[in-house]
Amino acid sequence: MWHAAVVTRLPLPRLRSGSWARWVGAAVAAVVVVSGALWFAPPEQRLGALLVPLVLALVALEVAQDGYLDTPASGGPALGQRRLGRSVRRVQLTGGTRVNVVGAHGTVHLVAVSPTGERAAVDLLVTTLHTRAGRGPDVLRALADAVGRPEVEDGPRIASLLRAQAEHVAVDGDLESSPLAGRRGPPAPGLRF
User: Fold this and answer.
1) Lowest-confidence segment of 55-69, 72-86, 118-132 by average pLDDT
2) Angle, vertex CA 183, rays to CA 178 and CA 188, nearest 5
């Protein structure tokens, strides 16, 4: 008799200001406005103007991305990313997988890289001008348990960092002074967050 594998999925939405639906809605509205402008544009300018909706659609797809942690009843856990609700990247947290915590532009990510080079990343902490957000202690502990397996390269070290962050958040510690805050990286050159 065949039994379906029981998998617990922990959703890890992006830590950004506003929802992805708002960003997608704004992109759709922009496409409608640009399409209306194209109707009245001279023919020689239409090709360049057609690129604007394409770029907006690509930005909307990137913004509409979130992550998840799968914890199966048997086998290793997996870190994944979804775009518009569809899984696009999934990395098993098993032997040969490397994990690290990296920061850029005020955001700290947990990154998993499989032995074949497949990558999945989820936000852990965001401290920008418009957004101050971080994962809760229960989520951080679940991530620490998943990556802290001895067969995962750098897993125990990253797990201890995630557990330290969980303890800091659990006692209402400030995000700016948290264990992950030092890994945010500099803001993008020329951009103000």
Assistant:
1) 55-69
2) 120
